[in-house]
Amino acid sequence: MYVISNIYFITAIACIGGALFGFDISSMSAIIGTDAYNQYFGPNIPSDTQGGITAAMPGGSFVGALCSGWLSDKLGRKYTIQIGAIIWCIGSIIICASQNIGMLVAGRFINGFSVGICSAQVPVYITEIARADIRGRLVGCQQWAITWGIMIMFYISFGCSYLKGTSSFRIPWGLQMVPAIILFFGLFFLPESPRWLARQDRWEESENVIALMHGGGDRTSPYVAQEIQDIRALVEFERSNADATFLELFKPKMIMRTHIGLFTQIWSQLTGMNVMMYYITYVFAMAGLTGNTLLVSSSIQYVINVAMTFPALVYMDRFGRRPTLLIGSTLMMTWLFANAGLLASYGHAAPPGGIDGVAAASWEVGGHASKAVIACSYLFVASYAVTWGPVSWAYPPELFPLRLRGRAVAICTSANWIFNFALGYFVPPAFENIKWKVYIVFGVFCAAMTIHVFFLFPETAGKSLEEIEEMFEEKTPAWRTHVSKEIRPVHLGKSGGEFSEKPVTEHSDSAV
After folding, report:
1. Which helix (H) or strand (E) covers residue 82, if one does?
2. For 72-125, what is each residue's pLDDT tens digit?
3. What topology is assigned to 7-195+247-456 in CATH?
4. 3-class state of residue 164 by DSSP
5. Closest C-alpha to 26, from 226, 278, 218, 232
């Protein structure tokens, strides 16, 4: 028996799965610069070794995301996320008890497996229970939860850094289990996705969930009847065409959607945002900050990340996915090239071995240029948080039909994590070897993604999932698509798989 029907409360619980990723980011970024960590696992951990430790989590996330599609289709969205919560607790125990780098890497890989599951299936779950007019902001809450996890864990780690010995990092690593425990038990009180239930021919349960969430518990509501009719038509249409397989995602009729979903996640990594998240202490050390000033200044970007994600959740469904992505990539490109220019013009190579023995901190800049580098870094984070951060999670689940959505989003999310893995490993040696030119690399990526989005990424905001299906069937050019101001459910014909539309006469802000 479900006791929670409020969509915002349901989203808040489900998005704790996103907070797990945020906790992991800060549990590493806030600790790698502390003496206790470097003395216990070091001394002077080589940049490639630290890159491997950091990359273990996204490496596990890649595997977890790939597995999550199969699990989600078999067990349901809700129970798959619960499995992810259990795995997170196991990984956190291993990390907390780590005696050497090998054990730390193993624990982070297991944690990553959990993050891969949750990051792929939480957006799917929310997409399938949310109304079209608020779907973007609800799925975008996944990113907001990530930013909260980053900020909370950073300050926990910062506070624990004053403790002596290994407790300064073991306590934060152990506290990572708390949100996973809340997530696991909280999900017992949430409904399963009505669309997944329909795919399992559990129609009565599906109708009950829709009535509970969007019909005030009234199964005779015209809206509930309309929604069930739309879902039934879509399920029957999909079953008459093909079974869900990974291979189908790469067939001619689906390849464009797969390509867009994959690159949404790939580009979100190639913006360079996680360089700021994982290695911000290295960046600010190169800008001349030290000690507590370094940690506190680093934490400001996490506060910015949280604060600037919220406006995106409010306006994203009105403003649209395309404009948000285009403006974001353009702004980030500007700040990245600005930082490269500042470091190249006013900086110089650090002493051999790097600043304070950290080889990745291989460049120094001082004076007003140092303040400008810090300012551009903050502006970069703000630009990402209000654009690509939430949209990169909301966009892919909207692209795919029901029968493929779980596996499709799993593949897209796995692309995110394999690039996260590569960048986590690549960045420390890159800072050591090509120094400030790292910013040019990511600036060029931002320029490329701006062009890519303009020509190939269609608008999905405000459209029902069935209406999006029609848009792809008609092959509408991306630059001619716009935010849908009126929600009009699309009905699938009984013969030939043709699409037809019938306006909603009541509750026009229907679920999708």
Report:
1. helix 77-96
2. 888 888 899 999 999 999 999 999 998 888 899 999 999 989 988 888 888 888
3. Growth Hormone; Chain: A; (1.20.1250)
4. coil
5. 278
